[in-house]
Amino acid sequence: MSAHMHFVLDQFDTQRGQFVVLNELCTRAVRDEAMRGTLDAGDTAWKDYLLGILRAGQDGGHLRAGLDPDAAAILITGFLKSLLLHPGLTVDSARNAADELLRSLAPAS
Question: Does residue 73 have a pLDDT over 80?
Answer without folding.
Answer: yes
